[in-house]
Amino acid sequence: MNTQAVLSMGQQGLEVMLLVSAPILLTALAVGLIISIFQAATQINEVTLSFVPKIIAIFVVMIITGPWMLTTMIDYIQRLFGQIPFMIG
């Protein structure tokens, strides 16, 4: 196994990680921004006000995109396990 194969595997792993985590992170960012604007407009400085809507939104996104996330991770793992014979010799 050469360095190019190791770098390729690492790059693929990072791509899958970013792809799978993007919907959750973008949802948390959007909900946090909306709640922050609401808090600034109403001058309410309650920490838990932003926490609960983020959790609910993240659960909804995980329910919607969960099957796609699982399929993406399974495909990556199958490709990774399929490369094991070629890595050994």
UniProtKB/TrEMBL annotation:
<dbReference type="InterPro" id="IPR002191">
    <property type="entry name" value="Bac_export_3"/>
</dbReference>
<comment type="function">
    <text>Role in flagellar biosynthesis.</text>
</comment>
<protein>
    <recommendedName>
        <fullName>Flagellar biosynthetic protein FliQ</fullName>
    </recommendedName>
</protein>
<feature type="transmembrane region" description="Helical">
    <location>
        <begin position="16"/>
        <end position="39"/>
    </location>
</feature>
<keyword id="KW-1133">Transmembrane helix</keyword>
<keyword id="KW-0282">Flagellum</keyword>
<keyword id="KW-0975">Bacterial flagellum</keyword>
<keyword id="KW-1003">Cell membrane</keyword>
<keyword id="KW-0812">Transmembrane</keyword>
<keyword id="KW-0969">Cilium</keyword>
<keyword id="KW-0966">Cell projection</keyword>
<dbReference type="GO" id="GO:0005886">
    <property type="term" value="C:plasma membrane"/>
</dbReference>
<dbReference type="InterPro" id="IPR006305">
    <property type="entry name" value="FliQ"/>
</dbReference>
<dbReference type="Pfam" id="PF01313">
    <property type="entry name" value="Bac_export_3"/>
</dbReference>
<feature type="transmembrane region" description="Helical">
    <location>
        <begin position="51"/>
        <end position="70"/>
    </location>
</feature>
<dbReference type="GO" id="GO:0009306">
    <property type="term" value="P:protein secretion"/>
</dbReference>
<keyword id="KW-0472">Membrane</keyword>
<dbReference type="GO" id="GO:0009425">
    <property type="term" value="C:bacterial-type flagellum basal body"/>
</dbReference>
<comment type="similarity">
    <text>Belongs to the FliQ/MopD/SpaQ family.</text>
</comment>
<dbReference type="GO" id="GO:0044780">
    <property type="term" value="P:bacterial-type flagellum assembly"/>
</dbReference>
